[in-house]
Specification:
Belongs to the FAD-dependent oxidoreductase 2 family. NadB subfamily. 32% of the residues lie in helices and 18% in strands. It is of the alpha+beta class and 537 residues long. The protein is globular.
């Protein structure tokens, strides 16, 4: 069993810092929530690197919201539900599509500059959207612009304190409530931060896989520490692989935005054949899981490690204007988006599941909230609709703050579990080797295509690493590996349990969607194990 805490420590012997609200992580979820909360609360933001290091920074396509007069919340709702493959919470989707435009207005007031044309927002269309509703910034640098604007604003707010290069090891609970976090400082010393509310904004689990569009910080820390604290973790089997990451010798798995296909790019196999018409009527704009599996099928059929993305039929001026960062990045590796077919392959991109929350972002542990990719609000279902993630973060960030503002101050200073002092030995094997081995297990057995034999074998291999939790950990890399191992086992257990194919979860031994038995969520809990939620039809 995974232990309650990663380290042996006497919390009563540690220095204590008191804050109203503790925000763990940065990105759009952390920054937006902190800014909203700071109006009535003293806020501490804790990041393990800096405010600029998050998945948001790398978001290219944009943010989905109903802005155009020919669009409507009903259309956005329909598109989201279709992409979610029957597992979305309709109530959560209603919240998203109706409150998203107000969130965009907030971002603009906070300094975000979205692209405009003739005085109006320049909207684009992405896969599985029926209308142009994607706002973007600097062509294909939307995430960077949002993080730039929000971090600049946060630095100017006296009631927001930022701790860079600090690692949150575990959440602290007392009488069933979350009352703060155990934090390690850059010098290795530890302290206890207490607050009336703790908000997890720690991002996803992209580093479970060798090939990912996510930065190095995406190690599932929030999900893992919430699981250890007793929160319910929902739908971890649904990992979205982005169909088109750059696949070129010497280059990182750089994201080639879905918006490129939205603007007319087509996919070709290495023989030069356009192939999406054999897989889906929406062709290149089919849901991401469909496109990603189609690419893998073509790669296997042609014995290749990539397919091509071709937008050379569009004007060079449009390409350079609309996708300046993608164009420049590819050019650095000798690839010209205006004249060359770009080699691409799927890579781990987004986690639909996460810490289960209600419509105000609160978990089953009072005073503990989750926002952004680490949360499972019910918006994304089995497969996230493109560009809904940034919208979700601002909509539920605002709702979390509404709930926090109604909370009474924290009174209890104790903590639930006495922590044993039994960890004597440091890790035996270099953690970098352990991490690479874990990633290989996940790619081989818990990737785009799954079956019971492979999943069970993968879980067995992962469980061989369980003794690691009982070794003496003290570095960020060791904590991250413990969190990755936790999330890897949660993902694999959920994937074994769901005996159907739906959205981003594809079982070769159960290739059909089964609405009769599986219109339900998987729920994981540290003490209760894995359970199946009520039918959501």
């Amino acid at each position: 069993m995974i232990p309650r805490y990663l380290v042996d420590i006497d919390l009563n012997a540690l220095p204590v810092v008191e804050k109203d609200v503790i925000v763990i992580g940065a990105g759009i979820a952390g920054l937006f929530t902190a800014l909203k909360a700071s109006k009535h609360n003293d806020v501490l933001m804790i990041t393990k690197k800096s405010l600029m290091d998050s998945n948001t920074r790398y978001a290219q396509g944009g943010i989905a919201a109903v802005i155009s007069e020919d669009d409507s919340p009903a259309y956005h709702r329909h598109d989201t539900l279709v992409a979610g493959a029957g597992l979305c919470s309709e109530e959560a989707v209603d919240v998203l599509v109706h409150e998203g435009p107000k969130g965009v207005e907030d971002l603009v007031r906070m300094g975000t500059q979205f692209d405009q044309e003739n005085g109006e927002y320049e909207l684009t269309k992405e896969g599985a959207h029926s209308h142009r509703r994607i706002l973007h910034a600097n062509g294909d640098a939307t995430g960077y612009e949002i993080v730039r604007a929000l971090s600049e604003k946060a630095k100017g707010v006296p009631r927001i304190e930022v701790w860079d290069d600090h690692f949150v090891i575990d959440l602290v609970t007392a009488d069933g409530e979350c009352c703060g976090a155990l934090v390690q400082k850059p010098d290795g010393s530890k302290l206890y931060v207490r607050g009336k509310a703790t908000v997890l904004c720690s991002g996803g689990t992209g580093q479970l896989y060798r090939y990912t569009t996510n930065p190095d910080v995406a190690t599932g820390d929030g999900v893992a520490m919430a699981f250890r604290a007793g929160a319910y973790i929902q739908d971890m089997e649904f990992i979205q692989f982005h169909p088109t990451s750059l696949c070129y010798p010497g280059a990182p798995r750089f994201l080639i935005s879905e918006a490129v296909r939205g603007e007319g790019a087509v996919l070709r196999n290495i023989r030069g054949e356009r192939f999406m018409d054999r897989y889906h009527e929406q062709l290149e704009l089919a849901p991401r899981d469909v496109v990603a599996r189609a690419i893998v099928s073509e790669m296997e059929a042609t014995k290749s490690t990539f397919v091509y993305l071709d937008i050379t039929h569009e004007s060079p001026e449009m390409i350079r204007h609309r996708f300046p960062n993608i164009y420049e990045f590819c050019l650095n590796y000798g690839l010209d988006l205006t004249t060359d077919w770009i080699p691409v392959a799927p890579a781990a991109h987004y986690m639909m599941g996460g810490v289960k929350t209600d419509l105000h972002g609160e978990t089953n542990i009072p005073r503990l909230f989750a926002c952004g990719e680490c949360s499972s609000t019910g918006v994304h279902g089995a497969n996230r609709l493109a560009s809904n993630s940034l919208s979700e973060a601002i909509v539920f960030g605002r709702r979390i703050v509404e709930r926090i503002n109604a909370l009474e101050p924290l009174l209890n200073g104790l903590f639930d579990e006495p922590v044993s002092h039994s960890r004597a030995n440091p890790p035996m094997q270099a953690v970098v080797e352990k991490r690479l081995k874990l990633q290989k297990v996940m790619v081989r057995h818990v990737g785009l295509n799954r079956d019971k034999k492979g999943l069970v074998r993968g879980l067995e291999e992962l469980k061989r690493q369980l003794p690691f939790f009982y070794e003496r950990l003290h570095t960020r890399e060791e904590y991250e590996f413990a969190n990755l191992l936790t999330c890897a086992m949660l993902t694999t257990e959920a994937a074994i349990t769901r005996e159907e194919s739906r959205g981003a979860h594809y079982r070769e031994d159960f290739p059909e969607r089964d609405d009769r038995d599986w219109s339900r969520h998987t729920l994981l809990h540290r003490e209760h194990g894995i359970t199946i939620g009520a039918d959501i039809r």
